[in-house]
Design goal:
about 350 residues; alpha/beta; 2 domains; 6-stranded mixed beta sheet; 8 helices; 15 strands; disordered N terminus; binds zinc ion
């Protein structure tokens, strides 16, 4: 019993005393453990972000992190608790997110990568976000086949989405721009796409279409994680290459998902992915009037190692008698592109986006 009490005390006090720090190429994340009843407020002044906690023990400490994005942080007692001041390096931007169970605050600080091309009609010095769009399949792999071929429909939707985002000052990278596979080996093909979700980019959206044996329709959005739902697992196997290969890559992705469960830093990125998924589904359903099939997690191989918010969107069922035919039309593809661009912009403009 004494051990348990000691452990609980340590978790409660250490959590706030010293944030967990994670670094990746181009970013530093600080994760503060927060007691459930505590209040917090954030403010920024120059290169310093202040987080004032109330209902926490008073702290007095100073830590030098010396990462490319963060100089360090200090904590001083303030009324009812402590105030942490994190000193950012010049040329960085940050975003914050609160997580529950256990309650945490994530502060993510990212280097602003210099833009190589000048952006006309813009006086802002902030670099443009970089969005990676991944039209699934292509070349030897048509994907789902019905009234349209998945590989063709998702490519056109991606190209239309790219145009909309670029008109709003966003840089867009496509994993493919023609009816081509990236590799004849499906695992390598998915690996090449996944590698584009590196931390120099802002977010990653893989675009797919469904097929179902029974007449199903609607849009669903996924972020990476485990599932015990057999239907979702079957879909993941299919998108992960199908057959024995799809089963193997799905098992690999499931074990990554299990490992990520214990990684608070990775969990923070998955939380951002969930936000992106929710906003994208909302915008897609609003633009198209399609049935919402919800946001889910599943072990999709292509988003298993994403260092940035990453989702996989299923834009509809190619073999549904009504939806499949709509997916063949330019008008509906434009509505889907409006929805995708709208969801991505909503995410970039929200508190989750870079500031
Ligand atoms: Zn697909």
């Amino acid at each position: 019993m004494r051990y348990i009490l000691v452990l609980v005390f340590c978790l409660a006090s250490l959590g706030l005393a010293q944030p967990r720090v994670g670094t990746e190429d181009g970013l530093t994340r600080l994760v503060f453990g927060i007691p459930n009843e505590a209040k917090l407020s954030l403010s920024r002044s120059g290169n310093e972000v202040s987080i004032r906690f109330q209902g926490t023990p008073p702290r007095n400490l100073r830590t030098l992190l010396n990462t490319p994005q963060v100089v360090g942080y200090r904590a001083t007692p303030s009324p009812g608790g402590s105030t942490y001041v994190v000193t950012l390096r010049a040329g960085t931007s940050y975003r914050t997110l609160e997580l529950a169970n256990p309650r945490r605050l994530v502060l993510e600080v990212r280097s602003k990568t210099p833009t190589t091309t000048a952006r006309p009609r813009s006086t802002s010095r902030a670099p443009a976000p970089v969005v990676v769009l991944d039209p699934g399949h292509g070349g030897i792999d048509p994907g789902a086949v019905g009234f349209v071929h998945e590989e063709e429909a998702v490519l056109e939707v991606a190209l239309r989405t790219k145009k909309l985002l670029e008109a709003r000052g966003i840089r867009v990278i496509l994993t493919r721009t023609a009816d081509k596979h990236l590799s004849a080996n499906k695992a390598a093909d998915l690996g090449l796409r996944a590698a584009m979700a590196d931390s120099k980019r802002t977010l990653f959206v893989s675009i797919h279409a469904n097929a179902a044996e029974r007449a199903a329709q609607g849009i669903e959005v996924y972020y990476f994680g485990e599932t015990i739902d057999q239907r979702l697992l079957s879909k993941a196997i299919l998108e992960n290459g199908g057959g024995a290969l799809g089963q193997r890559l799905t098992r690999e992705a499931q074990s990554v998902a299990q490992r990520l469960m214990r990684d608070l830093i990775a969990q923070a990125n998955l939380k951002f992915s969930e936000q992106l998924a929710l906003k994208t589904l909302r915008a897609l359903v609003r633009e198209t009037g399609a049935v919402s099939r919800g946001v889910h997690t599943a072990p999709f191989y292509v988003i298993r190692n994403a260092r940035i918010p990453a989702i996989l969107v299923e834009i509809g069922f190619v073999n549904h008698p009504a939806e499949g035919k709509k997916l063949a039309t330019s008008a509906y593809r434009q509505q889907l592109a409006n929805g995708l661009a709208g969801g991505i912009m909503a995410f970039l403009n929200s508190g989750n986006a870079q500031r």
